[in-house]
Amino acid sequence: MSLKAVLSKYISKSSRIGFLRISEKVRGYFHRKNLNTLAKIFKTDKYGIHFYTPHYQFHLNEFRKKKLKILEIGVGGYENPEAGGHSLRMWKAFFRRARIYAIDIYDKSPLQESRIKIFKGSQVDVEFMQGVSEEIGEIDIVVDDGSHINSHVIQTFNFMFPLMSESGIYFIEDIQTSYWEEKGGTSKDFNNKNSIMGYFKSMVDGLNYQEFEKPGYETNYFDLNITSIHFYHNLIVIYKGINNEPSNFMVNNQKPN
Question: Per-residue pLDDT tens for 229-248?
């Protein structure tokens, strides 16, 4: 009989959950440097069903020991208050000194534990998101694994990105919905700025605004505060920072005489 079957037969549900959490933490401790393995231990779909953790490892490994504030949008498990939270526990194991926050439209408070706090609300409720931001303070890492509706993803980014720390990193998962009409996407116009991919592709040129041959060009917030954008299969990564590296040729968006 498997350990899970033994626990199910002889121990109460709450005790089983507690035992499994302890087991996860112990195994996670010995693999705390490897996100692929942690994803398997904590049973998050960020590896296996998806293949995000290799990219997360690449982008976040240097911050593993830092004191960070991490916000994940979407907890998982739908309306079941005791289901989900797998990736939150993975982040907690990987970032040993970070505080992990999350939001979900369902009450997920039973999943809270030390260094993990969960807020109930919608990612497109501006008043709610403002309150979350004020309570947390400057956020270092945002992971949008929420509704995956194109308009929601874009609205949430536009609101949350300016509130992040100056060196923040913003991740958007499951961007396949950019091509699905039922989620507000399109497979007909790949440059449509109402789709996730179309919107973030339109920001790429802003990385090079110093080179535009447009005298009097007025920069926007994202021109000045995005330093790189990385596109992967179903994942986008946006780095925040001061984008003021001067052109080696242009002067005020004009070619010198």
Answer: 999 999 999 999 999 999 99
Q: What class, spelled out in words, does domain 33-240 have in CATH?
A: alpha beta
- Calculate what percentage of the chain has a pLDDT beyond 90: 86
The whole-angstrom separation of Cα 17 and Cα 44 is 16
Residues in the chain: 257
Torsion of CA 185, 153, 77, 23, to 10 degrees: 120
DSSP SS3 for 136? helix
Q: What are the boundaries of each domain within the chain?
A: 33-240
Separation in Å, CA 236 to CA 6, 44, 145, 157 = 42, 19, 12, 12
Phi, psi at 186, each rounded to 5°: -155, 140
Per the CB < 8 A criterion, the answer to whether 28 and 38 are in contact is yes
Active site residues: 148
Number of C-beta neighbours around residue 14 at 10 A: 10
> Cβ of 49: how many Cβ atoms within 10 Å?
9
44-84 per-position pLDDT tens digit = 999 999 999 999 999 999 999 999 999 999 999 999 999 99
Q: Which one-letter amino acid corresponds to residue 14?
A: S
